[in-house]
Amino acid sequence: MSDMKYIPRLYGRLQDKPLKPRQAQLMETLLPKLAIPDPEVGRLNLKALFPQAEEVWLEVGFGGGEHLAWQAAHNPAVGIIGAEPFLNGVAKALVQIDDQGLQNARIHHGDVRPLIEALPDGALTRLFVLHPDPWPKRRHQKRRMISPWFFGEAARLLRPGGELRVASDIPDYIRWTLMHWQRAGGFEWTAECAADWTDRPADWPQTRYEAKALREGRRPAYLIFRRK
Ligand SMILES: C[S@@+](CC[C@H](N)C(=O)[O-])C[C@H]1O[C@@H](n2cnc3c(N)ncnc32)[C@H](O)[C@@H]1O
After folding, report:
1. Which of 64, 93, 101, 219 has its CA 20 to 30 A from that of 129?
2. How many structural domains are present in the chain?
3. The pairing of beta strand 55-60 with beta strand 221-227
4. Is 25 inside any structural domain?
5. Which pLDDT belongs to residue 167?
6. 112: CB partners within 8 A, 6+ apart
């Protein structure tokens, strides 16, 4: 994984509660059908994964999968890949995919970094990183998903006009993201007034972490960067 390979894993727990019976069953029956081929094996063939799709989107760290399922349901012509190492999150996403009969979602149960590196140039038209783990301690900042590596890969993967969407409710992470965006080049920030980043757009459903942040009195920022 290029320069990322020496960095410790970026995520916290891999499982909390035991899975409910239906979740456990879907992990065995549905996940193998939706799973992305092992990215360590080589470049991914997106046409084989999504033969009908006009575009491919990727969500990094989908948590409980609410945003992934909503986007898949509202954008049937798009193929959506979600990556998440947290077992309970993957199981929750599978239940939504099954309940809604979604045909255009694929899952990578694991670290998104090898998947990102296995995607071909210009593979994506949207890339979502919603409420990434904040890693507030200075000595842990190198674990943050938003990084020079990430912006470099986002620039490689997104076609001109494609969008990188980042949400955070942590002021330091918002500043961090804007600092890395400025340093990276390759993207314009679409905001023209404060409401463009303080108000969640209509085509951006609420995630579990956003709801938690609002309950706890933190106001998220919704950042949209467009690939030049
Ligand atoms: C704070 S949670 C936010 C979850 C969800 N996006 C939301 O807004 O509710 C961050 C998520 O990123 C996932 N994550 C952390 N590192 C990751 C990595 N390297 N690859 C994929 N997902 C990762 C974590 O497991 C966790 O579910």
Report:
1. 101
2. 1
3. unpaired
4. no
5. 98
6. 58, 60, 61, 83, 145
Q: Is residue 2 part of a domain?
A: no
The tens digit of pLDDT for each residue in 106-154 reads 999 999 999 999 999 999 999 999 999 999 999 999 999 999 999 999 9
Which tokens is 132 given?
A: 């990434």
Q: Which domain holds residue 152?
A: 51-227
Distance CA 90, CA 68 (A): 11
Of the listed 16, 133, 169, 199, which one is catalytic? 133
pTM summary value: 0.96
Question: Any idea what the CATH number is for the domain that residue 171 is in?
Answer: 3.40.50.150
Q: Which atom of ligand 1 is nearest to the CA of 89?
A: 27
Q: Tell me whether residue 133 is one of the annotated catalytic residues.
A: yes
C-beta separation of 158 from 224 below 8 A = no
